[in-house]
Amino acid sequence: MIKDIYKQRILVLDFGSQYTQLIARRIREIGVYCEVFNCDVKKSDICKFDPKGIILSGGPDSVGRKDSLSAPEYIFSCGIPIFGICYGMHLIAKQFGGKVMGTGEREFGHASIKITNTSSLFKDLDEIQDVWMSHADQVVEIPVQFAQIAQTDTCFYGAMADEERRYYGVQFHPEVTHTKNGIQILKNFVVGICGCERKWKPRFIIDNAIARIRDQVGDDEVVLALSGGVDSSVVAALLNLAIGTKLTCVFVDNGLLRLNESEKVMEIFSSQSFSMNIIHVSAENRFLEALRGKLDPEEKRKIIGKVFIDIFNEESKKLKNARWLAQGTIHPDVVESAASETGKAQMIKSHHNVAGLPDDMDMNLIEPLRELFKDEVRRIGLELGVPYNVLYRHPFPGPGLGVRILGEIRKEHCDLLRLADAIFIEELYSWGLYYKVSQAFAVFLPIRSVGIMGDARKYDWVISLRAIETVDFMTARWACLPYDFLSKVSNRIINEVEGISRVVYDISGKPPSTIEWE
Ligand code: XMP
After folding, report:
1. Which atom of ligand 1 is found nearest the CA of 350?
2. Catalytic residue chosen out of the listed positions 34, 39, 86, 249
3. Which residue among 68, 219, 262, 448 is the one 20 to 30 A from 111 at the CA level?
4. Is 3.30.300.10 the CATH number for 411-505?
5. Which atom of ligand 1 is nearest the CA belonging to 399?
């Protein structure tokens, strides 16, 4: 039972395409478990993974280049179906004696492809298909055992197949949504050709995770730092279902949370539907005390992280049998930290999470969401009864308002910011804009500016509003919110929040600016 939903799985080999992770997500959407490995993976790791099919991603390299990236020789001798996308197709062609050439020009964007031969890859598809191209090289001669199965005006070998050995290649990208029936093509490969059953579904994922958690922790107790964010909330709901009262959640109110956040989190998770063990730690004074007089953003972040860890450590030690520490690590975190271990990524800000816990905690880690993408986490969260507004809420940084109050953090400024932020968010909801932006919040600027209200002069603080649109939070555009909307929010903040005399809107993109101000 435990391994069942992973058993029939697909391996994606990464040759550096910006769409590689997207391939994995699409396969999982189809209902088949899938993982991405680097293209230089060892034979033993492939054997251990035991895939039912292999997909070779695209990539910026050129197979004609000396020392170009190649696929492990082993995959062409083990009898597993292989599907090459773009660069992946070039690799297959080269491997079996075909020819790949640069056309001198990059073809990028929509193309219409004509299916010229029957193949299992294009089963149930009409003759003409809208696809998305992004390539410079193309196959100009296919290997002997292969047949052309599709072509475009600019690319004679738009797709090729060796049905007998179950090797396929396409020049276009079926994983991007611009390829209209891309998901059908991927489904034809993983379900039709590789024969995978579609078991990677929320209900099965939950059942499987529960069985694994029970197996892993036995009668031990588990402690979880609950923040009220998507990942820790879903871990809490999952563990609650798996081990009930053996789970204790620690929720730390650091005084840097949004308006009524602490009450909302406690209400949801101690409600009848969950009725979890939650320790609520009111630690506002402790955090503010530690932050007093600190101005430097990095120093502030580090202090918030350290105080959090100290408190969490103290609370965990009070629990007698807590041998396990649960974390909401998700798949992209694993991928990112692997990438950052190469040392190529420069540290811009020290994002904190519970990973920095001291060794003397002497607990084992349990990370039940480690294999899941964010959208999968949300889907299983819904199935577990975590409220929609928790699952689809904008992200909130670990250091909270600490990175949204520039310079020194004072309680009175936190209180002003909370009120202004709540008005902004409330109006986003009521104008139907909340889910159209990826993240929105208010920032407290410690500058005073002159204003006039009634006949009285004001000399008060400034609030900046920030709203961005992004897919991955690595880059972001500022959101073009309607002027009427901004005007309403600004009026409300200045009228309703005593102590604010001016509201500005942040029109900086990332890069060069980061999303948070500190
Ligand atoms: P930046 O400001 O780096 O933010 O462009 C990118 C995304 O990360 C969030 N963020 C954090 N999340 N701990 C977190 O859990 C942190 O320390 C942290 N700092 C920034 C930020 O809100 C945005 O979504």
Report:
1. 17
2. 86
3. 68
4. yes
5. 17
Cα 197 from Cα 47, distance rounded (Å): 20
| Burial classification of residue 8, based on how many CB atoms lie within 10 Å of its CB (0-12 exposed, 13-18 middle, 19 or more buried) | buried
Report the nearest-CA residue for atom 7 of ligand 1. Answer: 473
Q: Check if the beta carbon of residue 111 is closer than 8 Å to that of residue 160.
A: no
pLDDT at 332: 79
- Catalytic-residue membership of 175: yes
**CA nearest ligand 1 atom 16, residue:** 351
Residue 327 CA to residue 107 CA, distance in Å, equals 44
Mutate to test the pocket of ligand 1, among 302, 477, 515 (most ligand atoms within 8 A of CB): 515
pLDDT digits (tens, 9 = 90+) for 440-478: 999 999 999 999 888 889 999 999 999 999 988 888 999
Q: What are phi and psi of 43, to 5 degrees?
A: -55, -40
Pocket residues: Cβ below 6 A from ligand 1: 349, 351-352, 395, 397-399, 439, 473, 510, 514-516
Rounded Cα distance, 118 and 437, in Å? 44
The larger pLDDT score, comparing residue 357 to residue 119, is at 119
Q: Do domains 9-193 and 411-505 have the same CATH topology?
A: no
Question: Residues at the annotated binding site?
Answer: 227-233
Name the pTM for this structure: 0.83
Q: 90, 135, 173, 331: which is the annotated catalytic residue?
A: 173
Sign of the C-alpha dihedral computed for residues 44, 48, 53 and 54 taken in this order: negative
- What are the structural domain ranges in the chain? 9-193, 202-392, 411-505
**Residue 35: active-site member:** no
Determine the distance separating the centroid of ligand 1 and the alpha carbon of 349, expressed in angstroms: 8
Q: Catalytic annotation on 173?
A: yes
**Is residue 3 scored above 60 in pLDDT?**
no
Each residue's pLDDT tens digit, 383-403:
999 999 999 999 999 999 999
**Residue entry with tokens 């599709």:** 150
Which CATH number is 202-392's, of 3.40.50.2300, 3.40.50.620, 1.10.940.10, 3.30.930.10?
Answer: 3.40.50.620
**Out of 322-331, 335-344, 499-508, least confident range:** 335-344
pLDDT above 70 covers a percentage of the chain that reads 94
Domain spanning 9-193: CATH superfamily: Class I glutamine amidotransferase (GATase) domain (3.40.50.880)
Instruction: Report pLDDT for 352.
Output: 47
DSSP annotation string for 114-135: EE-S--GGGTT--SEEEEEEEE
Judge residue 435's burial from the number of C-beta atoms within 10 Å of its C-beta, 0-12 exposed, 13-18 middle, 19 or more buried.
exposed
